[in-house]
TrEMBL record:
This is Zinc-ribbon 15 domain-containing protein. It comes from Meristemomyces frigidus. Residues 81-117 are annotated as: Disordered.
Length: 117
């Protein structure tokens, strides 16, 4: 006789407040159908959650089409959308002064029409 213990993981998902209307691209299937969800993964024993893998729920992008999940920390583009939604982001100090001040090089004469002597 052998005892079969069923271990696994269970993910709790819940909507993130303020992110309900945000749709982001899924990096797995490419569809703009990803939603930002709160995920909380637990270690389960006989389908009973015993130990949380992380102390707190963490935000992640969940795609309902391909069921792909990606931690929000790997999605700086989404974080930018989130942070830029409510408040204005101060532009980079200094702007573009100091670099790229060189004028474009003049086109050499005769380019495009090659003349052979
Ligand atoms: Zn997807």
């Amino acid at each position: 006789m052998a005892f079969i213990f069923t271990c696994g993981t269970h993910k709790f998902r819940s909507q993130m407040q303020g992110y309900e209307n945000l749709q982001v691209q899924c990096q797995n299937c490419g569809n703009f159908s990803g939603h930002v969800m709160k995920l909380w993964e637990w270690f389960t024993f006989c389908f009973v959650p015993i130990i949380p893998f992380s102390l707190k729920p963490y935000p992640a992008v969940h795609c309902p089409i391909c069921n792909f999940e990606q931690d929000l920390k790997y999605r700086p583009d989404v974080q930018q959308q989130v942070n830029g939604g409510g408040q204005a982001i101060p532009m980079q100090p200094g702007g573009q002064q100091g670099w790229n001040t060189r004028p474009p090089p003049p086109l050499p004469p005769g380019q495009g029409a090659q003349v052979y002597k």
